Amino acid sequence: MPTSVFEKLLPWSGALAGAVWAVQFAAAKTADDPEDPQAVAVVAGAVARNYAAGFALLAGSFLLVLFAAAARRTLRAGEAGESTYSSIAHGGLLVAAAGFGTLGIL
User: Fold this and answer.
1) What residues make up the domain containing 79?
2) pLDDT tens, 68-88?
3) 37: how many CB neighbours lie within 10 A of its CB?
4) Which of 64, 65, 81, 103 is deepest in the core (most CB within 10 A)?
5) Which residue ranges traverse the bilayer (predicted)?
6) Domain tally for the chain?
7) Residue 101 contacts residue 64 (beta carbons within 8 Å)
8) 34: DSSP letter
């Protein structure tokens, strides 16, 4: 069965999601102690970095949804009659993507 370019690149979306999350962890800047009087200055000084980290999480969430589709298709191809495991893996990846997306929004 011939595959399109999109289908060939779909499994790599998981690696891209990991790279984007690494960018998020490097870019995010928060204060260690919220009670510290300089905590507001730390966060205010890194507003652009924190926005970039949030958008990186959102992009990573979208890429994880694409990876979930590729993972389900691959797992389903190897299951004989029942598709329980591919559905569980797909659901878990979607829940993880929703959690990371929510974190990016917050």
Assistant:
1) 5-105
2) 888 888 888 777 777 778 888
3) 7
4) 64
5) 52-71, 83-105
6) 1
7) no
8) T
